[in-house]
Model the fold of this input.
Amino acid sequence: MKVIIDTNGFMIPVQFKVDIFGELERLGYDDFVAPQAVINELKALVKKYRGENRTAAKVGLSLSDRCTLVERAGIADDIILQLALDTDAAVLTNDVGLVKRLNDANVTVVRLRQKNRLDIM
Done:
């Protein structure tokens, strides 16, 4: 099954010490997708932040190498929603606004649960 990973999803490994790929595989996902807009956000966060958030963004960038990169123009959240609808993919995110939009569109959402594992919502 396919899952699109949002910017904050890539930052989970450093922020919460969770192996996102191991957890996604445990949930049945084996096809990982990263929109170019998410990669661009991670690059911007590396420049903007210091400390743990910068480290999380750097690790997220390196983890994105394990994903299929999708080039689409626009705002990351809009791209993620449309890509999920177009490809019948789930989305890994903790962004409350994006989660609401995904739920309204009946897209499967994978979220951090109890700060130590991922779960399908």
